[in-house]
Recover the amino acids of this structure.
């Protein structure tokens, strides 16, 4: 916290003299008794960051006159939950959009400093496959991202890297050119729906272990990518980089692209479609069906499923009563479909944890929050997305178990969604779903980190706060996402207020008087009358 | 990278003022538009319009102080109804120097670093050292024997040493640091702090660094002697005064050479440099107001007086209720009173014969509720009261005594307030919220203030850039770039490019004649780019039945009368090298056949796309196509292509992709798009993903009895419909605007240039971002000249399109003519003021002989022989360009 403080109050000096690196060094260079910092080696806690806002002046005076023992004597009295809470903010998706170019670098630099001063722990950086390994396989361009990491480090912030093996439609960041080129002649590397449409924003999980990429399997390519990342960023990993998210599918989430256009609100009108119609998926299904002695079940997906935008009851499969999903065939299909997804997640997360396991970073994977139709018995949105979670079956247990097996943490988006803001007809319940997944995760010991779907959703910040401090408190939240809207007058003050309100429980009036005494004392320790001016 | 932005925050003056008083930090509305920019902190310039500049004038009311108003008849004090003295703080700038001297002390063993400051006040040197072998830029505490008396250690890394006066009575403050050059110290670092204001004085946004050994990497903040090798020249250039160089080092240092520092063979050299600094000193003044009842007239007499030097104008009004809405009272007014825009009165205070005060007497009706005023000083700065008007309650005064005005709609310049102030206010509130704790130590608040202020500034900066983001390269040293020249750019979309595009039509109707147009154009590439164009439209590249290229035959044969495919590729490459985007002129509507069918009709195509008559629309009897009915108008000179055929579209998409890939075209100019449905265009654009695309949708304007109608809404609607059909993926040439400009200029009917709703009457008035405005092209002008722009009035046309929203397209013949320099000036005005395709336009005059408009509140323009001058408001304009019947002003 003094870190931030310094960079503001005494700002100009510190920033410049220290190049804004880890400001701890400013004080701690030859001084090992700095309790404030050593208290939590890897992260200055959110609590202390925030309280700085209030106490900074005094704190600073304390610091400035070198009355350290007094400061050290002060031990944190804050509640544990808040002490742990770390807030990250996502950097723009197109922070780097071709190998060496940082977009709006100046804005990001200013933004980083603002965040640092606000007491934010760090930022999340999406690292795109289609940017880094765009031209040809094995040729990586890290320079732009390295520059960002350096900026973040200099700003004294932490970095959470999201490895994105998917494409983005806005801003437009496609898969690597060479992959797309392969895809042109071999569209079976993509997910395919019933009508034969391909989803070109990520590779189909069915080809994970097939040598479809110039003789290599996608898993091998991802692995090489991660290894290259690790070696390129080794100076940052464990220090600046504290977390790495492994991209698991569409939008980085572990799911099938069952809804081609997932709305910003995360609320979809229809049930989505099963994505099992690619050649390779069908092969897997066929093998599985034959192994199960029902070869006829392996010829395709459910024939009575509705299409993308239709409601559940428009066809028989998802009917709440007597729907095929409850039939033996339904169970067969849904089990296979969801197992494939979990196996895919397992392949990627075990890969990630084997590569990054020996580093001081946490490995994360992200789940979607398919909350539409949650109030029906069949939960069609979750089913088409690959989560066999219905009124009668907890589909997240297998998923959480897989995360636990790989010692990975789980990111849940949609912490900003509240039931009351969902359209009634979608029978949606983001809050119940969130709580279900969180409960399952805590049962299996999987730590959950939070994310919001979009900044500016109605009541979003309140909901986030509720989730952060609620029954299943989370220790890390990534707020999405820096950009024009984030810093706009409509949003940024709300965000500032939000951060402040997170700190509200800390505003203990009796916290301050002691501070005052300390400050007074500290001033007295100084014989020079000019010294107190340091705080100005 | 972070340091980089620090640099940009703390731009050149190397002065960071950290204002001390809380009120000082508050943004002042009143200064928003009327203040003299020069008074402001250097920092505010970084934040464009987002951030209202910080007030340099602060007013604080303090009702406990009750200085009496002199010269006012206070003898009968019982009829004094109201009396108030408002302390007023003004900031005056004082200039001075910081000097840094390094020389040998008397014993010739030790050296001495002297840092001094010529300004009065209390100064502290905040300093530290770095040792040999240190990496990074951390400071260390200097050894004890180096610390001058009075030094205070600041933790373990720095020392604060107060500057002492050299001798009594002298203003100069200095501090001397003695040291032994043979120690391990590599450099001394310091900043200077002004105790009174809390301002830090730095060097180029960083600490001053005096290297004591040679090989230290120059980080740009080094201070020292200039060597022949130019080691520190970069740093020195930044100094306003580098008075003495090494050659001029004191005469007692000839032994320099022998005093090598321990690990270096280059001698330490003495030096002396000065750097000018500006300190802002607050000056306390007051404004006193007293009100009494005039016994004779039953009116109220208000006397206002101040000790602020110079001309002081009271900008005042009255209000009749609590809403504090400004009104103008009935006469009589004091002498030297003028009416300001029917909103307020302005009275120049009369200097009193005795002393340096000035004042005025106001007579007001009894039923007046309150008296509102702000003060305007002669340096064009405004003083107000806690961000609001001064308010003198006249009715029920006992209850509202000391209360200040809440008016939010005062005079124009006072209320003008960028909406982005929201942030600041919100964060202010946050501060207030935080500081309502019972601990109210001012210092705490100030520190919080400064943090929050910093956050707010950073957020504002980030916002302003994100809103108009640019791409920078990491290898660029961003800290050195000028923040003022941020080039806003918006998201690139195919219909608009970045939104800041200026297009050049890079050919005319004759360009094919030389047979080497591509080569000729290539030679002009850098010239074109330096004129300020961003996009160039090249002639149709395909093999064509007509030499100009608009009767394409084999689409994949790019050897044309303009040059060979290789020359074309070379040209595109050169254009790219100078930063231009290249549009290919693609003719998709029709295509000439290679051979006849069995009926002797030319409708069988050859080349790589060997379509047959199924590719030709079925409703043109000339070509006996077997395709579907045309989705648009038919072009009868050649077989019209049936875009409803899947195979045709697939082939065309492939072709466009090939052009993008092989030739490097960035986008398209689409010929005769009236001939087929805009939805197909969207399909093609989605497939070929151009950087920019513009369609030629050409049809006639509406005329009644041979006279063009004022209302051309139907015409522009058709163009808009087409753009709509493309889903906005393409822009369209604004034929409507050209037509209206023709009439307006030809017949001196400038009123035509405003539509019924006061907007531009062309496409640009309805969908500016998709309107590609132009006044001439190869068809209308050049040697075809079938619809030539009124002769001699081209510059008026360009003064219009180059200042207006929309994406302007300049015709080749015009830029390379005697208009060139004028047009270059217009283009640079557009670029300089960052006018873009969505810029806001306000038409201020559209009369018979003159049309005037203000664009983005930055650029004012007029065309026509009539008179127009921009209003002489507080926002001053200066003439940027003037020519025959046009004039352009820029806000200064």
């Amino acid at each position: 916290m003094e870190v931030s403080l310094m960079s503001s109050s005494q700002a100009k000096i510190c920033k410049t003299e220290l190049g804004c690196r880890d400001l701890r060094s400013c004080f701690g260079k030859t001084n090992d008794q700095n309790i404030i910092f050593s208290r939590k080696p890897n992260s200055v806690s959110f609590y202390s960051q925030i309280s700085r806002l209030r106490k900074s002046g005094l704190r600073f005076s304390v610091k400035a006159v070198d009355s350290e023992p007094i400061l050290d004597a002060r031990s944190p009295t804050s509640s544990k939950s808040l002490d742990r809470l770390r807030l990250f903010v996502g950097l723009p998706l197109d922070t780097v959009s071709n190998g060496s170019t940082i977009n709006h670098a100046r804005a990001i630099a200013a933004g980083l400093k603002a965040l640092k001063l606000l007491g934010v722990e760090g930022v999340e950086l999406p690292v795109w496959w289609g940017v880094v390994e765009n031209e040809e396989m094995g040729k990586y361009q890290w320079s732009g991202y390295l520059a960002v990491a350096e900026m973040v480090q200099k700003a004294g912030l932490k970095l959470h890297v999201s490895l994105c093996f998917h494409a983005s439609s806005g801003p437009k960041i496609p898969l690597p050119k060479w992959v797309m080129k392969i895809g042109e002649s071999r569209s079976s590397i993509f997910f395919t729906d019933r009508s034969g449409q391909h989803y070109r924003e990520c590779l189909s999980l069915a080809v994970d272990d097939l040598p479809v990429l110039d003789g290599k399997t996608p898993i091998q390519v991802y692995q090489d990518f991660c290894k290259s990342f690790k070696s390129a960023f080794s100076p940052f990993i464990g220090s600046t980089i504290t977390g790495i998210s492994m991209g698991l599918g569409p939008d980085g989430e572990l799911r099938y692209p069952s809804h081609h256009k997932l709305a910003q609100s995360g609320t979809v009108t229809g049930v989505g479609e099963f994505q099992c119609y690619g050649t390779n998926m069908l092969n897997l299904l066929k093998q599985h069906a034959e192994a199960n002695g029902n070869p006829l079940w392996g010829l395709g997906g459910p024939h009575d499923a509705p299409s993308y935008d239709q409601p559940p009851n428009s066809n028989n499969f998802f009917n709440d009563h007597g729907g095929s999903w409850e039939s033996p065939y339904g169970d067969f299909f849904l089990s296979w479909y969801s197992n494939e997804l979990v196996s895919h997640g397992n392949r990627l997360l075990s890969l990630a944890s084997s590569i990054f396991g020996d580093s001081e970073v946490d490995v994360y994977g992200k789940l979607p929050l398919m909350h539409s139709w949650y109030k029906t018995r069949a939960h069609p949105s979750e089913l088409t997305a690959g989560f066999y979670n219905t009124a009668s079956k907890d589909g997240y247990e297998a998923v959480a178990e897989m995360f636990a097996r790989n010692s990975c943490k789980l990111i849940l988006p949609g912490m900003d969604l509240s039931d009351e803001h969902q359209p009634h007809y979608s029978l949606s319940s983001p809050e119940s779903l969130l709580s279900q997944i969180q409960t399952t995760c805590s049962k299996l010991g999987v730590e959950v980190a939070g994310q919001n779907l979009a900044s500016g959703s109605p009541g979003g910040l309140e909901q986030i706060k509720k989730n952060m401090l609620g029954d299943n408190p989370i220790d890390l939240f990534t707020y999405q996402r820096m950009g024009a809207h984030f810093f706009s007058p409509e949003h940024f003050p709300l965000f500032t207020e939000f951060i402040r309100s997170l700190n509200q429980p800390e505003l203990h009036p009796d916290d301050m008087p002691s501070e005052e005494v300390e400050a007074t004392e500290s001033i007295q320790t100084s014989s020079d009358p000019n010294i107190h001016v340091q705080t100005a | 990278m972070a340091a980089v932005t620090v640099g940009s925050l703390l731009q050149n003056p190397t002065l960071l003022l950290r204002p001390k008083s809380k009120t000082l930090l508050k943004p002042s509305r009143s200064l928003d538009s009327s203040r003299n920019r020069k008074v402001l902190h250097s920092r505010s310039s970084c934040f464009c319009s987002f951030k209202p500049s910080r007030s340099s004038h602060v007013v604080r009311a303090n009702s406990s102080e009750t200085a009496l108003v002199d010269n006012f008849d206070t003898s009968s004090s019982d009829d004094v109804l109201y009396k108030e003295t408002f302390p007023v703080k003004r900031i005056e700038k004082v200039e001075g120097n910081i000097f840094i001297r390094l020389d040998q002390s008397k014993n010739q063993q030790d050296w001495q670093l002297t840092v001094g400051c010529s300004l009065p006040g209390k100064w502290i040197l905040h300093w530290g050292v770095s040792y040999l072998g240190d990496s990074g830029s951390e400071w260390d505490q200097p050894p004890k024997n180096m610390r001058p008396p009075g030094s205070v250690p600041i933790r373990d890394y720095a020392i604060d040493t107060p500057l002492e006066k050299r001798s009594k009575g002298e203003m100069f403050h200095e501090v001397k640091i003695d040291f032994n050059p043979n120690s391990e110290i590599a450099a001394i670092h310091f900043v200077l702090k002004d105790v009174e204001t809390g301002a830090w004085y730095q060097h180029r946004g960083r600490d001053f660094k005096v290297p004591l050994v040679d090989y230290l990497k120059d980080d740009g903040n080094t201070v020292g002697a200039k060597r022949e090798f130019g080691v520190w020249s970069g740093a020195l250039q930044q100094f306003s005064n580098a008075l003495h160089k090494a050659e001029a080092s004191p005469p007692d240092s000839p032994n320099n050479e022998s005093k090598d520092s321990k690990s270096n063979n280059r001698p330490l050299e003495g030096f002396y440099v000065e750097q000018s600094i500006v300190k802002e000193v607050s000056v306390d003044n007051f404004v006193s107001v007293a009100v009494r009842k005039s016994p004779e007239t039953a009116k109220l007499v208000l006397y206002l007086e101040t000790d602020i030097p110079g001309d002081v104008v009271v900008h005042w009004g009255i209000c009749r209720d609590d809403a504090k809405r400004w009104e103008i009272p009935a006469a009589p007014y004091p002498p030297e009173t003028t009416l300001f825009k029917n909103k307020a009165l302005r009275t120049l205070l009369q200097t009193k014969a005795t002393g340096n005060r000035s004042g005025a007497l106001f007579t007001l009706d009894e039923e007046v509720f309150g008296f509102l005023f702000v003060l305007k000083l002669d340096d064009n700065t405004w003083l107000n009261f806690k961000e609001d008007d001064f308010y003198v309650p006249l009715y029920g005064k006992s209850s509202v005594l000391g209360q200040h005005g809440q008016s939010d709609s005062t005079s124009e310049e006072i209320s003008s307030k960028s909406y982005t102030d929201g942030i600041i206010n919100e964060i202010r509130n946050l501060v207030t919220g935080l500081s309502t704790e019972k601990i109210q130590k001012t210092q705490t608040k100030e520190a919080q203030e400064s943090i929050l202020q910093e956050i707010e500034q950073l957020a504002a900066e980030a916002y302003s850039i994100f809103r108009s983001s640019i791409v920078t390269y990491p290898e660029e040293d961003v800290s050195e770039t000028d923040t003022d020249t941020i080039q806003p750019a918006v998201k690139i979309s195919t219909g608009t490019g970045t939104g800041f595009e200026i297009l050049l039509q890079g050919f005319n109707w004759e360009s094919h004649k030389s047979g080497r147009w591509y080569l000729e154009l290539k030679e002009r590439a850098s010239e074109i780019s330096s004129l300020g164009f961003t996009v160039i439209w090249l002639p149709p590249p395909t093999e064509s039945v007509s030499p100009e290229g608009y009767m394409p035959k084999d689409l994949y044969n790019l050897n044309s009368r303009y040059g060979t495919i290789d020359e074309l590729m070379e040209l595109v490459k050169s254009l790219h090298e100078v930063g231009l985007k290249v549009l290919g002129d693609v003719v998709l509507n029709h295509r000439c056949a290679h051979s006849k069918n069995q009926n002797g009709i030319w409708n069988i195509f050859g080349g790589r796309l060997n379509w047959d008559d199924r590719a030709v629309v079925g409703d043109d009897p000339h070509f006996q196509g077997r395709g579907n009915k045309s989705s648009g108008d038919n072009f009868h000179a050649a077989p019209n292509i049936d875009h409803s055929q899947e195979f045709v579209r697939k082939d065309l998409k492939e072709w466009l992709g090939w052009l993008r890939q092989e030739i490097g075209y960035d986008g398209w100019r689409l010929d005769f798009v009236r001939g087929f449905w805009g939805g197909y265009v969207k399909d093609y654009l989605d497939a070929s993903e151009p950087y920019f695309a513009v369609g030629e949708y050409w049809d006639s304007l509406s005329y009644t009895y041979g006279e063009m109608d004022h209302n051309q809404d139907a015409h522009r609607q058709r163009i808009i419909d087409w753009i709509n059909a493309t889903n906005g993926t393409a822009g369209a040439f604004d034929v409507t605007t050209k037509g209206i400009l023709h009439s307006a200029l030809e017949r001196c009917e400038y009123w035509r240039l405003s539509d019924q709703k006061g907007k531009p009457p062309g496409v640009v008035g309805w969908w500016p971002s998709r309107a590609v405005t132009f006044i001439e092209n190869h068809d209308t002008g050049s040697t075809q000249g079938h619809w030539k722009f009124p002769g001699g009035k081209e510059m008026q046309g360009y003064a219009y399109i180059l200042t207006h929203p929309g994406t302007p397209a300049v015709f080749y013949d015009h830029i390379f003519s005697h208009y060139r320099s004028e047009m270059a000036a217009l283009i640079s005005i557009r670029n300089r003021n960052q006018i873009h395709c969505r810029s806001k336009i306000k038409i201020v005059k559209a009369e018979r002989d003159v049309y005037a408009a203000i664009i983005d509140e930055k650029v004012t323009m007029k065309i026509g022989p009539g008179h127009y001058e921009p209003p002489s408001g507080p926002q001053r304009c200066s003439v940027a360009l003037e020519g025959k019947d046009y004039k352009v002003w820029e806000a200064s």
